[in-house]
């Protein structure tokens, strides 16, 4: 909320500042410099003495009155030639000066005015100007007043902006929490807001979108689960029929064909089991959390692998400690990675693990051809297989890595692919502290 509030507040303050400058220049163009007007008001007493006392003297007493003003005033009044006075004036000020008006010099806290336009005051008065210095002009006070006024406006805006930002931020936080829960698999998560809330229309559209996604996913899961279950029955009947047929067939060639058909049926059965496993991971069933020994679980997982032509190097240290999670699911993910490595390794597969401050890291390496960098994210998609994985000997169904990725994600961990020190692919499981 603080970040949203500060950004909006800074934007408002910048807008007010720009508006203040625009107002200042507009007033300056239309009505004159506001600061010059303030300075004129501050020097009003001296201007009044000059215009209402000195200028009202008879022709032979003008200088006498000016001298009297000099005696009682702290302001210094000098008579200077007009040419000297005009040197320091701008074109606009010079025109006003030539008309006989008072011209204020803010920088030097002084004023200039012609003594006389016609020489009536004294002989040569039309060639001289009055230069009054040390006027009681203090623009700092005016600027301070403007700063105080600006600060009051800022503080007055601070309260409604804070209330407005807080209302929006609370609604946005609720939407963020709903999005997090929905992304974590809680498809029933919805935003509960009142119609009067500021972001109620957005929440309604998000709820509508979540409802449609939930319906589509539930339909997909239901179809996948139902079809997988229904297929298991005819598969069982076919297995039984093939066994009977194989025993009664006398032709060797026919028995070989029946054996190939049994292999196809076994492959189909494995696919169904994988699909059911995917369906269970996508369901809302809670994980079976338990505390288990990491060293024992990982070594048992490696020992349960089917025999393979490649060697398996297990580097799991003793005393890794325990972890709190779904042991069956985590070891299934690790086993999938090991079986995948066995398929593509040329001669060696390595399993290593470490634990530091509760965070667990498991590495599965092989010396096979590796996985191209541009395809490392795609291999976790269901049914995605690299070109070299499509033959019958090494290719699976493209579900093993997907199941492993989902199992690790359900524990809040990550599964990444890098280049292995052995030359092939390295799969790294990172599990956060339980």
Automatic annotation (TrEMBL):
Q: Which residues cross the membrane?
A: 6-27
Q: Which reaction does it catalyse?
A: ATP + protein L-histidine = ADP + protein N-phospho-L-histidine
GO annotations of cellular component type: plasma membrane
Q: Sorted alphabetically, which SUPFAM superfamilies does this protein's record hold?
A: ATPase domain of HSP90 chaperone/DNA topoisomerase II/histidine kinase, Homodimeric domain of signal transducing histidine kinase
Histidine kinase domain residues are 226-434
Task: Fetch the Pfam families from UniProt.
Answer: HAMP (PF00672), HATPase_c (PF02518), HisKA (PF00512)
**Cited InterPro entries:** 2C_sensor_his_kinase, HAMP_dom, HATPase_C_sf, HATPase_dom, His_kinase_dom, HisK_dim/P_dom, HisK_dim/P_sf, Sig_transdc_His_kin-like_C
> What membrane topology is annotated for this entry?
Multi-pass membrane protein
Report the enzyme's class at the first EC level. Answer: transferase
Q: Which Gene3D superfamilies match?
A: 1.10.287.130, Histidine kinase-like ATPase, C-terminal domain (3.30.565.10)
Q: Which keywords accompany this UniProt record?
A: ATP-binding, Cell membrane, Kinase, Membrane, Nucleotide-binding, Phosphoprotein, Transferase, Transmembrane, Transmembrane helix
Record-annotated HAMP domain positions: 166-218
Would you tell me the protein name for this molecule? histidine kinase
Annotated source species: Pseudoduganella dura
């Amino acid at each position: 909320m603080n970040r949203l509030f500060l950004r909006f507040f800074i934007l408002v303050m910048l807008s007010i500042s720009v508006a203040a400058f625009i107002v200042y220049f507009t007033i300056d163009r239309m009505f004159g410099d506001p600061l010059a007007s303030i300075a004129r008001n501050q020097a009003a007493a001296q201007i009044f003495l000059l215009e209402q006392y000195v200028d009202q003297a008879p022709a032979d007493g003008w200088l006498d009155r000016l001298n009297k003003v000099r005696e009682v005033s702290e302001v210094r009044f000098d008579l200077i030639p007009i040419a000297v006075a005009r040197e320091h004036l701008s074109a606009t000020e010079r025109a006003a000066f030539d008309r006989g008006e008072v011209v204020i010099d803010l920088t030097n806290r002084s004023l200039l005015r012609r003594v006389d336009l016609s020489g009536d005051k004294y002989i040569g008065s039309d060639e001289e100007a009055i230069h009054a210095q040390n006027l009681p002009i203090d623009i700092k006070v005016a600027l301070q007043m403007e700063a105080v006024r600006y600060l009051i406006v800022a503080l007055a805006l601070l309260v409604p902006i804070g209330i407005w930002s807080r209302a929006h931020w609370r609604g946005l936080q609720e939407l963020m929490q709903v999005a997090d829960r929905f992304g974590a698999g809680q498809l029933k998560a919805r935003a509960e807001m009142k119609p009067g809330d500021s972001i109620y229309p957005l929440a309604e559209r998000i709820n509508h979108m979540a409802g449609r996604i939930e319906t589509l996913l539930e339909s997909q899961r239901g179809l996948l689960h139902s079809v997988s279950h229904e297929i298991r029955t005819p598969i069982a009947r076919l297995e039984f029929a093939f066994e009977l047929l194989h025993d009664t067939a006398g032709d060797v060639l026919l028995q070989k064909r029946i054996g190939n058909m049994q292999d196809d049926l076994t492959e189909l059965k494995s696919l169904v089991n994988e699909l059911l496993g995917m369906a269970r991971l996508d369901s809302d069933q809670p994980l079976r959390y338990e505390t288990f020994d990491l060293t024992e679980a990982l070594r048992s997982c490696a020992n349960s692998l089917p025999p393979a032509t490649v060697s398996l190097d297990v580097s799991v240290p003793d005393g890794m400690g325990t972890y709190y999670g779904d042991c069956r699911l985590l070891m299934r993910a690790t086993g999938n990675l090991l079986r995948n490595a066995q398929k593509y390794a040329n001669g060696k597969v390595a399993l290593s693990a470490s634990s530091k401050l509760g965070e667990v890291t498991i590495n599965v390496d092989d010396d096979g051809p590796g996985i191209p960098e541009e395809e490392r994210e795609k291999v976790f998609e269901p049914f995605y297989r690299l070109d070299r994985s499509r033959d019958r000997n090494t290719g699976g169904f493209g579900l093993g890595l997907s199941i492993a990725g989902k199992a690790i994600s359900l524990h809040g961990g990550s599964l990444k692919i890098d280049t292995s020190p052995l030359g092939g692919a390295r799969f790294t499981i990172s599990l956060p502290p339980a």
